From TrEMBL:
It holds the Pfam family DUF150_C. It comes from Aeromicrobium senzhongii. This is Ribosome maturation factor RimP. It is found in: Cytoplasm. Keywords: Cytoplasm, Ribosome biogenesis. Belongs to the RimP family. Residues 88-148 form the Ribosome maturation factor RimP C-terminal domain. Its main location: cytoplasm. HAMAP family: RimP (MF_01077).
Length: 154
């Protein structure tokens, strides 16, 4: 659930990130008064490197400084990549993680791990023990990429 301030910040930052070839994935405002932290998550096909994060940080900071959206109080701006621990909620998240292992929970309560196959705007193919099944996104309650330290190419 977003708040009016998050909606305003997102609307302000969306064109900035888009002009850099980045998707604005998430905006969070944490803390109060002088300890506020504005967290901005960005991503793109092929991933986001340190140079893209630095460029985005400079551009976002400049736009925020020119606007009144954050008010007069101090805050800390943190710009980072989306991160692997975030749930897959958009078709682009599935596409960008093709081949990765994912923990899935379906609307019927079933839970399993599967390998992500091809995906499009309506659903994704998941390989479970070698069998591939297509799932529409509206049947998936939650999905999070699993970290594989010693992954064997499948």
């Amino acid at each position: 659930m977003t708040t009016p301030i998050i909606d305003r910040i997102s609307s302000l930052l969306e064109p900035v990130t888009a002009s850099l070839g980045l998707d604005l994935e998430e905006v969070e405002l944490l803390g109060k008064d002088e300890r506020r932290r504005l967290l901005v998550a960005v991503d793109r096909d092929g991933g986001v490197g340190i140079d893209q994060v630095a460029e985005a940080t400079r551009a976002i900071s400049a736009v925020l400084d020119e606007s009144d959206v954050m008010g007069e109080g101090r805050y800390t701006l943190e710009v980072a990549s989306r991160g692997v621990d975030r749930p897959l909620v958009e078709p682009r998240h599935w596409r960008r993680n093709a081949g990765r292992l994912v923990a899935v929970e379906l609307t019927d309560g079933e839970r399993f791990e599967a390998r992500i196959g091809s995906s499009d705007d309506s659903g994704v193919e998941l390989s479970i023990s070698g069998d591939t099944t297509r799932f529409p996104y509206d049947e998936i309650v939650k999905a999070v990429v699993q970290i594989e330290l010693n992954r064997k190419d499948v």
